[in-house]
Design goal:
- Belongs to the cytochrome b family.
- Its cofactor is heme b; heme.
- One of its GO terms (biological process) is mitochondrial electron transport, ubiquinol to cytochrome c.
- It comes from Vischeria stellata.
- There is one protein chain.
- The chain contains 13 helices and two strands; from the N terminus they run H-E-H-H-H-H-H-H-H-E-H-H-H-H-H.
- It has 389 residues and is an all-alpha fold.
- It has two domains: 27-134 and 174-252, Up-down Bundle (Cytochrome Bc1 Complex, Chain C); 276-389, Helix Hairpins (Orthogonal Bundle).
- The chain has a two-stranded antiparallel ribbon with strand order 1-2.
- Helix 2 (33-52) runs antiparallel to helix 4, helix 10 crosses helix 12 and helix 11 (289-309) packs parallel to helix 13.
- It is globular.
- The N and C termini lie far apart (68 Å).
- Protoporphyrin IX containing FE binds at residues 31, 33-35, 37-38, 41, 94, 97-98, 101, 104, 106-107, 111, 114-115, 118-119, 121-122, 191, 195, 198-199, 202, 207-208.
């Protein structure tokens, strides 16, 4: 009796969420990034579990245990390359997912909580990736960890205590590596839990669509049409994945990370992984340490505020002629910040970084609220005058 009841519950949940789930007919391929992000998360979890079977989170052995995985463990090299490049691909997919949301106004009411859960996932992804990069205990791992954990020393009054608490000592050391390993293992499961909440929030209100308007008869069942569509997108991603794993497995890694960590030798340029570079550029564009940290944190906070900054009734950028060019300029600006992030803080890069940071904040804090007031009026006036003619 109980078993039959549970079975019915399970099948009805599966049916209403992934089989008969009413999905807008006109979703384009931009709506595949969510499911591909889910697949990437599963790939990262599985490969991570297998890596952890052979990895040793002790300062003396960490670097060499990774070499052991690469050389001695059967298929260890491919598991490691999938995990390392998978992190990059996961970020590519999630950045596309975020910019898709920005373009089609998917963060606007009633999907504001859905967006907020997404930003939370993104912040946790950044923390997980940062701690994962420390684990091979190469030069970049060690010095990256030193630079980033030191940022907490800018917290007024208790900064240094916080940093020592994070380190578990007086420098980045064995306890630091141990706790980073523990957290790097645990956080992806929290991300997976948050992803379930993310999907529950999505299914509560339903997907947005490229037009940004709901209309009668626009829904069809998720299975089989969107399964096939999302699978097709995943196979395209898989091709890119294979190109990296088989042909350029170290292209996205820093060569210095193949040198064992040495606390006595600082590398000439300490650069984070590519997916942190835009935020790193924002951090460095303010010449004051605390100011830089606040700016970098602020760059994430504006994402949290976004649903409350935009009051436009028109969701899709496709129908917003003034917003459209400034949106595309933001995309350019973000990539440009990434480029600035890996340059030295000197000469023209300083001023260019400042300008790019300024535009980032100007876009979210000024352009979005201003245009959502002005453009709506212009669009309504325009369509009204067309009707009158
Ligand atoms: C582990 C990372 C993530 C996973 C697995 C994930 C998964 C998904 C899935 C499967 C969907 C439905 C399909 C789609 O619309 O693409 C979705 C929708 C959505 N996600 Fe995510 N997501 C993640 C991260 C994020 C982040 C970082 C944000 C924003 C900062 C975000 C915001 C949204 C929004 C607003 C929607 C609704 C889109 C619409 O209906 O137009 N997600 N997500």
């Amino acid at each position: 009796m109980c078993w039959r009841w549970n079975k019915q519950l399970l099948t009805s949940i599966l049916d209403s969420h992934i089989i008969d789930y009413p999905t807008p007919k006109n979703l384009n391929y931009m709506w595949s990034f969510g499911s591909t992000a889910g697949i990437m998360l599963v790939i990262q979890l599985l490969t991570g579990i297998f890596l952890a079977m052979h990895y040793c989170p002790k300062m003396e052995y960490a670097f060499y245990s990774v070499e052991h995985i690469m050389r001695d463990v059967r298929y260890g090299w491919i598991i490691r390359y999938i995990h390392a490049n998978g992190a990059s691909l996961f970020f590519i997919v999630v950045y596309c997912h975020i910019f898709r949301g920005l373009y089609y106004g998917s963060y606007i009411y009633p999907r504001h909580y859905l967006w907020l859960s997404g930003v939370l996932i993104f912040i946790l992804m950044m923390a997980t990736a940062f701690m994962g990069y420390v684990l091979p205990w190469g030069q970049m791992s060690f010095w990256g960890a030193t630079v980033i954990t030191n940022l907490f020393s800018t917290i007024p009054f208790i900064g240094f205590e916080v940093v020592e608490w994070l380190w578990g000592g007086f420098s980045v050391n064995n306890p630091t590596l141990n706790r980073f390993f523990s957290l790097h293992y645990a956080l992806p499961f929290i991300i997976a839990g948050l992803t379930v909440i993310h999907l529950a929030l999505l299914h509560d209100v339903g997907s947005n669509n490229p037009l940004g308007v709901e209309y009668y008869g626009n829904k069809m069942s998720f299975y089989p049409y969107f399964y096939v569509k999302d699978l097709y997108s995943f196979f395209i991603l898989l091709i890119l994945f294979c190109v990296f794993v088989y042909f350029f497995p170290n292209a996205l890694n820093h060569p210095d990370n193949y040198i064992p960590a040495d606390p006595l030798v600082t590398p000439a340029h300490i650069v984070p992984e590519w997916y942190f570079l835009p935020f790193y550029a924002i951090l460095r564009s303010v010449p004051h340490k605390l100011g830089g940290v606040l700016a970098m944190g602020g760059a994430l906070v504006v994402l949290l505020l976004l649903p409350f900054l935009n009051s436009s009734r028109v969701r899709s950028t496709y129908f917003r002629p003034i917003y459209s060019p400034v949106f595309w300029f933001l995309v350019f600006d973000f990539i440009f910040l990434g480029w600035i992030g890996q340059k030295e803080v000197a000469g023209p890069y300083v001023i260019l970084g400042n300008l790019a940071t300024l535009y980032y904040f100007f876009f979210f804090l000024v352009i979005i609220p201003f245009l959502s007031l002005v453009e709506d009026h212009l669009l309504i006036f325009d369509s009204y005058s067309k009707i009158k003619k």
